[in-house]
Amino acid sequence: MFIRTESFSQYIRQYPVVSTLIALNVVIYLLSLLPFIGDPIRNFGVGSNYMIAQGEYWRLVTPMFLHAGIMHLLFNMFSLFIFGPELEKVAGKARFLTVYFLAGIFGDIATFFVYDSSYLHVGASGAIFGIFGAFGALVYYTKKMLPQLRQIILPIIVLSVVMTFIGPNINAAAHIAGLVVGFLIGLSIFHPKRIISWRKPKLKVVQKR
Q1: Secondary element (H or E) of residue 18
Q2: Can you list the domains of the chain with their CATH numbers?
Q3: Which UniProt keywords apply (predicted)?
């Protein structure tokens, strides 16, 4: 399920939302390395609790597109590359974006309330954890029908949460909030009644002459 076998062009064509998000993160990271414009980009977008308290609310969104280093970027984009396509496929583009952005935003909101005003943060990990949470909701509804999904997703979620609390310089508030928000949205997206409504055949109205 999470083994990517598509060619580059197939991947972009089949998963345009995930592909666009990865491209945006990579391009913004590369721009942030350039002289003269790199510092303004980072200063404008970094998640600063102090500046958010001063009314710069865009900083609840922009940190999702900034990363602290190449390994930070690669880890998050690899996770998005592997796990994002399946969620985009089963949930649809709009629902995927809802999970991704709301998980990331609420992760940044949680960061604002949990940490002090000097706290600075960047990274898409809150949104990535939202993807894990949405899959957790899918597992909740399909644990008997899709045991393979459960065997894959639950260890990943557990391991990710454990690493959140034992790794250095990790924004635990964003991770946990993103996971919870993704799960809650997933409960709505993948509710059996809603799934049935997606699959109902559309009736064609034929006008009689």
Answers
A1: helix 16-32
A2: 8-197 (1.20.1540.10)
A3: Hydrolase, Membrane, Protease, Transmembrane, Transmembrane helix
**Backbone phi and psi for residue 190, each to the nearest 5 degrees, phi listed first:** -100, 15
Active site residue 7: no
Strand partners, 121: 47
For residue range 121-145, what is the model confidence (pLDDT) as tens digits?
999 999 999 999 999 999 988 876 6
Q: List the catalytic residue out of 125, 160, 191, 197.
A: 125
- pLDDT of 203: 41
Residue 104 CA to residue 106 CA, distance in Å, equals 6
**Rg of the chain taking only CA atoms, in angstroms:** 19
The DSSP symbol for 133 reads H
Choosing from 7, 48, 175, 191, the catalytic residue is 175
Range list of H helices, 92-171: 93-114, 125-142, 147-166
pLDDT tens, position by position, 145-178: 667 778 888 999 999 999 999 988 899 999 999 9
